[in-house]
């Protein structure tokens, strides 16, 4: 009688192993996942959860002198992924015109983001100068190539990530004697 119990126990063990194997076989659809494969954490890169603020200064350099440029505008361009993780079209927003001290400020609210976009990176560029005599952008502090928004201060009272770039510089128009 003990041999029949032994046969029954072996049979049940094999049936249990077969049931577990068939349950993890994914029904025969495709290969089993590699247990050593690291899965990407798509939730790691969260949608913009705080307001973004970008600040800086814009100057005009005329000869050896440099002075704050009032009325200049800075453009912030961002690369983002859509809600499915695919790269979305870049988007831009503009700062308010600089004040008398050349100070600019721009904001982007999470509510302004479209299609659950997730920002990957942003850069700030010189966009517009109000002076005809000082409207040639320079690449000082990457004013032409784009200053990467890399580090920020978190303003908890405003729930804002505040980035600082620049100072950016416009210069006088190139002389008419340049080579063309």
From TrEMBL:
In which domain of life is the source organism classified?
Eukaryota
Q: Which residues does UniProt assign to the signal peptide?
A: 1-23
The UniProt keywords, alphabetically, are: Signal
Asked whether the keyword Lyase is assigned, the reply is: no
Annotated Gene Ontology cellular components are: cell periphery
The answer to keyword Signal applying to this record is: yes
Q: Which Pfam families match?
A: Pollen_Ole_e_1
The name of this protein is Pollen Ole e 1 allergen and extensin family protein
């Amino acid at each position: 009688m003990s041999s029949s119990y032994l046969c029954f126990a072996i049979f049940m063990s094999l049936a249990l192993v077969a049931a577990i194997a068939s349950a993890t076989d994914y029904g025969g659809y495709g290969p089993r996942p590699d247990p050593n494969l690291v899965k990407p954490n798509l939730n790691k890169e969260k949608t913009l959860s705080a307001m973004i603020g970008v600040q800086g200064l814009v100057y005009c350099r005329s000869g050896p002198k440099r002075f704050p440029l009032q009325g200049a505008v800075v453009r912030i361009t961002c690369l983002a992924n859509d809600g499915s993780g695919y790269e979305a079209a870049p988007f831009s927003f503009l700062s308010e015109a600089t004040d008398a001290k050349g100070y600019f400020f721009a904001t982007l609210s999470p509510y302004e983001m479209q299609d659950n976009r997730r920002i990957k990176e942003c850069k700030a560029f010189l966009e517009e100068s109000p002076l005809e005599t000082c409207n040639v952008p320079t690449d000082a502090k990457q004013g032409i190539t784009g200053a990467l928004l890399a580090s920020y201060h978190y303003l908890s009272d405003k729930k804002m990530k505040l980035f600082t770039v620049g100072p950016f510089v416009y210069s006088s128009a190139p002389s008419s004697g340049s080579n063309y």
